[in-house]
Design brief:
- The chain is of the alpha+beta class.
- It has five domains: about 70 residues, Orthogonal Bundle (Helix Hairpins); about 240 residues, D-amino Acid Aminotransferase, Chain A, domain 1; about 90 residues, OB fold (Dihydrolipoamide Acetyltransferase, E2P); about 180 residues, DNA polymerase, domain 1 (Orthogonal Bundle), CATH 1.10.150.20; about 70 residues, Rossmann fold, CATH 3.40.50.10190.
- The protein has 25 helices and 28 strands.
- The strands form eight sheets. Strands 14, 15, 16, 17, 18, 19 and 20 form a seven-stranded antiparallel sheet that branches. Strands 2-13-10-3-9 form a five-stranded mixed sheet.
- It starts with 18 loop residues before the first helix and ends with a helix.
- About 35% of the residues are buried.
């Protein structure tokens, strides 16, 4: 990942810059902007707000204005976006997709219009089309004889990415243009975006699926469009507004104007933004800007300004381009939606997987028409003024309870604290002490080396994590209890019937005593309850590796659980060793023999060792484990036999197995010191083929690998 260079010192004052210093400063700024371009355009993960990015560009422009001789062809003011990424085919735009210059004040808009009048040598004020500036990503659609043939992202403005297949899934984009007078070839352009409500719903789904959420609707639109798997794009609610064009073999209307072309785009089957207005005079245009500014929060989609365009196309053509932007259009940006308020308190929320997230509780304030009472503070470093890349943010200023802070909703739905008003910091404000204990369950909370997230270690006891832990506990590679899936766990948890793992095994006992029986619950009956209790009883004897995996200790997946189980052999040996290692923990490190022994297991690194020992260092985890052990029996590990006929051999199971499950087959093979692989290669010794075996069986035959039926396999392992 590209590191974003950031200056730690205050940047030099432009007025006092010498030429040599200006050159260095320009170089630094262009590196910084390039890194932000990559983050924004290629990774869909901007690190700074648009306003901060604009400030960087304005600084470059100011320095270049003072030292025009320092302007080079690679100046960031002449480039747009970032070069396309390599995952998609490249598309050359017939007419480049350039960017827009910015105006930040009414005066700058008036100057824009005056410039046009001077350039065209006209006295009349040209008619201007004012359009909302949609905060999405721009797209160019090539139609030949009315058929959509190619769709491309902007990329660096000259070469974009081919996203034709993805774009065909967007309802707002016609595959065939409607109406008459359709040009033989045309490139129609506009913005792909996502509604704020759709973005929030998508993020909820992402989080439920354990995926990273998107930062804002723009990023989620970009991320959804640029999918290698078109089915994913199709499942995302993308929308499109048409507002521009590139190559046009002929104009479809006489005496073409911007507003006339928008009307044509609408007739051709596109959606054109309904707020677009034809304005006469600067005042008219500014009125539109203010009106849209007021409606901004309630529009349903993000906009970051207004675009003014000269209406007459022949004038647009005469005006042409200067550098990277047209002379006939300009973006009038909205100031980032900011407000100042008091940060009353920092609360810590504990997520379902144990992550501690600080949240700022604010004196409620309206920002761009929305009441904001909370802002995210991300993690411990963020509060201290350090970004994820270790570089200072907010000039390294920390955030304290009682501080007056500036918050911002810049397109982002989740408000951020952008700065602290230091003059208003209360004298007695203390640096925030990030908790070392989980605020929900009181277990110690730790931050692993190199991680930014602090996590609760109370895997078995923390109510904030309980449901996820229980789901994990009964999952296929853990206790694997038939009839007790995610849905049932959630229901039993909600009703207070299963709060801890041990409750699963006391369920039948408690049900016998209870007045309201399980069999009377909706969706249950006599038979299903009996089956459920039988399935639970069947799991009272459990392999050690499954138990270790079921505990849900961080970094302990199926493989590490097996390593630990094989090494310690029995539950008691494992628990005693972990307790000894936990007791050996000191601030200086851990010199206990048990700790050394744990670290010496091949494949177990320090991070894994730490996580297991942290679990056992929490007494209540140990207690909960003890209660569970009263209800179940943990089987000792059968030591793998090394002198077997299949020791060291590689086996692949394929097809549907009828005599044993895949997991059983794997366990049996491993007990006899064979290796189980997922795919067939020259190194495979045996392929055990069940019914309907397909490509793996074919490959085995081609490679001359020995193929066994299930019975032949059983005979082979029984003989050893
Ligand atoms: S016109 C030659 N109109 O803003 C300029 N752009 O900062 C063609 N955008 O790349 C662009 N809404 O992604 C135009 N109504 C609108 C727009 C708009 C959003 C975006 C577009 C463009 C960027 C420039």
């Amino acid at each position: 990942m590209t590191k974003t260079p950031k200056s730690k010192a205050t940047p030099p004052d432009i007025a006092t810059l010498t030429k040599a210093k200006a050159k260095v400063e320009l170089m630094r700024l262009s590196l910084e902007m390039e890194a932000h371009n990559v983050a924004y355009y290629q990774k869909d993960a901007p690190k700074i707000s648009d306003a901060e990015y604009d400030a960087l560009r304005r600084r470059v422009e100011a320095i270049e204005a003072k030292f025009p001789e320092l302007v080079t062809g690679s100046s960031p003011t002449l480039t747009v976006g970032a070069a396309p990424s390599r995952a998609f085919a490249k598309v050359q735009h017939a007419v480049p997709m350039l960017s827009l210059g910015n105006a930040f004040s009414d005066e700058e808009v008036a100057e824009f219009v005056e410039r046009i009048q001077r350039f065209l040598r006209i006295d009349e004020v040209p008619a201007i089309v004012a359009e909302p500036k949609i905060d999405g990503l721009s797209l160019s659609l090539r139609y030949e004889h009315g058929e959509l043939v190619r769709a491309a992202t902007r990329g660096d403005g000259f070469t974009g990415e081919d996203v034709t297949a993805n774009v065909r899934t967007i309802d707002d984009i016609p595959n065939r243009l409607k109406g008459k007078a359709i040009p033989a070839a045309c490139e129609l352009r506009g913005e792909v975006y996502m509604l704020k409500s759709d973005f929030l719903a998508l993020n909820k789904r992402q989080e439920e699926a354990g995926e990273d959420p998107f930062a804002n609707p723009r990023n989620s639109a970009a991320g959804s469009l640029r999918q290698k798997d078109v089915a994913i794009t199709a499942s995302r609610p993308l929308k499109f507004f048409a507002y521009a064009w590139g190559e046009m073999s002929d104009y479809p209307i006489d005496e073409p104007t911007q507003h006339g072309m928008l009307k044509w785009l609408d007739h051709a089957g596109f959606t054109v933004n309904p707020l677009i207005t034809l304005c006469h005079g600067v005042e008219d245009a500014l009125k539109f800007y203010r009106k849209i500014g007021e409606e901004r929060a309630s529009l349903g989609y993000d906009i970051d300004g207004v675009v003014y365009k000269v209406d007459r196309i022949d004038w647009q053509a005469r005006l042409g381009f200067a550098g990277r932007a047209p002379r006939w259009a300009i973006a009038h940006k909205f100031a980032a939606e900011q407000a100042t308020t008091v940060l009353e308190k920092i609360d810590i929320q504990v997520g379902r997987t144990g992550a501690l997230t600080p949240v700022a509780r604010l004196t409620p304030v309206t920002v761009g028409g929305v009441v904001v009472a909370n802002a995210t503070l991300h993690n411990e470093d963020y509060i201290k003024g350090v970004g994820n890349d270790g570089q200072p943010i907010r000039d390294g200023v920390d955030i304290r309870e009682g501080d007056t802070v500036v918050i911002q909703r810049a397109g982002d739905v989740i408000p951020q604290v952008v700065s602290v008003v230091m003059e208003k910091r209360p004298k007695d404000a203390k640096p925030f002490a990030f908790p070392t204990k989980c605020p929900v369950c009181g277990s110690h909370a730790i931050r692993e080396n190199g991680e930014v997230v602090t996590r609760c270690t109370g895997a078995l006891i923390c109510p904030a994590q309980a449901v996820e832990r229980l789901k994990h506990f009964v999952s296929r590679l853990a206790f694997d209890i038939d009839g007790l899936g995610d849905k049932q766990i959630q229901e039993f948890y909600d009703d207070g019937l299963i709060m801890h793992p041990v409750d699963i095994f006391t369920l039948a006992k408690r049900d016998a005593r209870a007045e309201k029986k399980l069999r009377d619950r909706e969706g249950f009956g006599e038979v299903s309850v009996r089956n459920l209790f039988a399935a639970i009883d069947a799991r009272r004897k459990i392999e050690l590796n499954r138990l270790i995996f079921a505990l849900g200790i961080r970094h302990i997946g199926e493989g590490n659980a097996k390593l630990l189980a094989r090494h310690y052999g029995s539950f008691n040996a494992f628990r005693d060793a972990m307790l000894a290692a936990a007791a050996g923990q000191t601030a200086e490190g851990n010199s206990s023999e048990a700790w050394q022994d744990l670290n010496n297991i091949g494949g177990v690194g320090e991070i894994v060792a730490d996580a297991v020992v942290e679990f056992f260092a929490e007494k209540r985890n140990v207690k909960a484990l003890g209660e569970l052990l009263d209800e179940i029996e943990v089987l000792d590990v059968e030591q793998a036999k090394s002198d077997t006929a299949i020791a060291g051999k590689t086996v692949v199971f394929t097809g549907s197995l009828t005599k044993f499950t895949r997991d059983e087959a794997k366990a049996a093979a491993e007990r006899l010191s064979a290796k189980v692989a997922g795919s067939v290669s020259k190194k495979t010794d045996y392929v055990v083929a069940g019914e309907d075996a397909g490509s793996k069986l074919k490959k085995a035959t081609e490679l001359g690998v020995k193929v066994l039926t299930e019975d032949e396999w059983l005979a082979l392992i029984e003989a050893t």
